[in-house]
Design a protein that fits this description.
Length: about 550
């Protein structure tokens, strides 16, 4: 909603710190929901696009605008079960009412509203945020960038931005590159200003601008202990509560910037969309002050892991088909001929209950070894970037078929897409695979699967549910918030698939998760009649570990 608010300010001319940067994207998004663009001025189209996309949140009857992007057969199924979201606010109000004591007491009916609300996020709020961010800040294209704490530099003023909304980060990029601020940093004895990202806002600007990334959710306190972080500014979501106290121990200036998220012990400087630089210039100024008075020695780990980031749907289209015939045909063809067995989305959080990054890395290695192309978002993608799998030469870890495709195209076997909000890019890719043809008529027919092996946030449940309702088998790890053996659990883990949707899965062992996903992909391949000569062996856990 924050991104939509800023887009409204941009089209109405009341916000000047942000602009429309990608006009092609503006036109293609507008056309995708039936807005006429031929011969029209950019701002005219933008105004119509705003009016249309606002309905995603506020409409009380009808279907959200991006329902027009859903494959026909998937949309038919949603209509049959009355799942097409009207508007996010209406669906959230309704679920709040239905979950009140003594209202909706039928598990299937309740799950239907869960799906409808979740879909208003995936094909609604998240998709709007991704598309408008591309329009205002630029659509990502692959670029080489580094992750890990070795991106901190002792001789520079180090500023970290952490959270989930790109607005703070975009403004901080401007502030950190402002010659006047750089001069102030130099006058304080620094060689410059070094801006780094963490968590999801970090993943987003890593993909969009190649800003170095210091680490995922599990590293956000540890990075402060280097002593080298002069300022950390946060907005919303996944901010560890102890960051204020940890920052105090190391003299790091810790800022909250969003009116919805204050933290005890933080310096609060409110970020105002209309005066964005007031906040970010102030953070830079206080970071320079801390640099001048660093309380102790810096201990910066030397490791930096380079990789390729920023595979937007638009770029994947171009990468596979070329600029004159951009298309998903080569991807579908390579799935049909069996070089690529299927596609897996491995996304989501890192969770303190398990060894850092281990489940993500082992799971993804097992998938690519079995010729499954992996797409990633969020903290999971940072785990794999640190493990070095976002480089084309990581293709040696892939099975023969996937390796051949990666070498031909020159791409890594693991594609980094951006933040958790960019999971909507995976929905668009699924819709495109259906539209391209040869892999069934609905998303539920595709040989694809999804996983958040270390989820920990409430919104991950919503993301999982919008993938399941869209037709994707989705596996979660660590814990699952339903009781095995109940009718409700059975409905989530099987009943939904019987109705034509995707379904949930659960496992904690990375190899078991990988083979749940691979078995599902094979089941879909079998149904599509594209299993070929491949021998289908049911593996025991011992086989898998061997
Ligand atoms: S930041 S929601 S820990 S991916 Fe999106 Fe990472 Fe999960 Fe937060």
């Amino acid at each position: 909603m924050g991104i939509l608010d800023v887009f409204r300010g941009v089209v109405n001319g009341t916000i000047h710190d942000f602009q429309i940067k990608d006009e092609d994207k503006l036109r293609s998004v507008a056309e995708s929901i039936g807005i006429d663009t031929a011969g029209r001025e950019t701002m005219d189209i933008a105004k119509d696009l705003y009016t249309e996309l606002e309905k995603t949140y506020t409409q009380v009857e009808g279907e959200i605008p991006f329902a027009k992007r859903v494959p026909e057969k998937t949309l038919e199924l949603w209509r049959k079960y009355d799942l097409v979201p009207r508007g996010a606010m209406r669906e959230i109000m309704e679920i709040m009412h239905r979950s009140h004591m003594g209202v909706d007491q039928d598990y299937e009916n309740m799950v239907r509203q869960c799906s409808r609300t979740a879909l208003s996020d995936g094909w609604g709020g998240s998709m709007v945020a991704t598309e408008l961010s591309d329009i205002m800040f630029g659509t990502p294209k692959p670029l080489v960038a580094g992750v890990n704490m070795g991106n901190l530099k002792e001789e520079t003023v180090n500023i970290i931005v952490h959270g989930h909304e790109p607005l703070l980060f975009e403004s901080m990029i401007d502030a950190a590159n402002d010659p006047a601020n750089i001069e102030k940093a130099k006058a304080a004895g620094a060689s410059g200003i070094n801006l780094l990202g963490m968590c999801c806002s970090g993943a987003e600007v890593l993909a969009r601008h190649g800003v170095p990334h210091a680490g995922n959710f599990m590293s956000t306190e540890a990075v402060v202990a280097t002593g080298a972080v002069d300022a950390m500014a946060v907005d919303v979501q996944c901010i560890m509560q102890a960051l204020g106290a940890v920052s105090k121990c190391y003299g790091t200036k810790f800022f909250t910037t969003n009116r919805r998220a204050h933290i005890d012990g933080a310096i609060h400087i409110e970020f105002d969309d209309h005066k964005a630089r007031e906040c970010t210039d102030r953070v830079v100024e206080m970071a320079i002050d801390r640099f001048k008075n660093r309380p102790g020695k810096c201990t910066i780990p030397s490791r930096v892991d380079m990789g390729i980031h920023g595979f937007s749907h638009e770029y994947v289209n171009y990468m596979l088909g070329g600029s004159f015939r951009g298309s998903y045909v080569p991807l579908n063809d390579n799935i049909i001929n069996g070089r690529i067995r299927g596609v897996a989305g491995v996304v989501g959080c890192t969770n303190p209950r398990v060894k850092q990054d281990w489940v993500h890395v082992e799971l993804v290695k097992e998938l690519i070894k079995n010729n499954v192309l992996v797409v990633q978002t969020g903290c999971s993608q940072i785990a794999l970037a640190k493990a070095g799998l976002m480089k084309p030469d990581a293709a040696v870890l892939a099975g023969d078929g996937l390796q051949e495709v990666c070498e031909t195209v020159g791409m890594p076997p693991v594609l980094s897409l951006g933040s958790c909000v960019d999971n909507s890019r995976i929905l668009i890719a699924c819709a495109e695979m259906v539209k391209t043809g040869g892999l069934g008529n609905s998303i539920a027919d595709l040989p694809v699967a999804g996983c958040a092996p270390e989820y920990m946030s409430e919104k991950a449940i919503c993301i999982g549910q919008y993938f399941v309702a869209s037709g994707v088998f989705t596996v979660f790890g660590v814990t699952f918030p339903s009781v095995e053996g109940t009718k409700f659990h059975q409905h989530l883990f099987q009943g939904l698939e019987d109705q034509g949707f995707g379904k949930w899965g659960f496992a904690t062992d990375p190899y078991e998760i990988a083979h749940l996903m691979i078995s599902h992909i094979d089941k879909k391949r079998m149904a599509l009649g594209i299993m070929g000569e491949r021998e289908r062996k049911l593996f025991s856990m011992e086989d898998r570990r061997a």
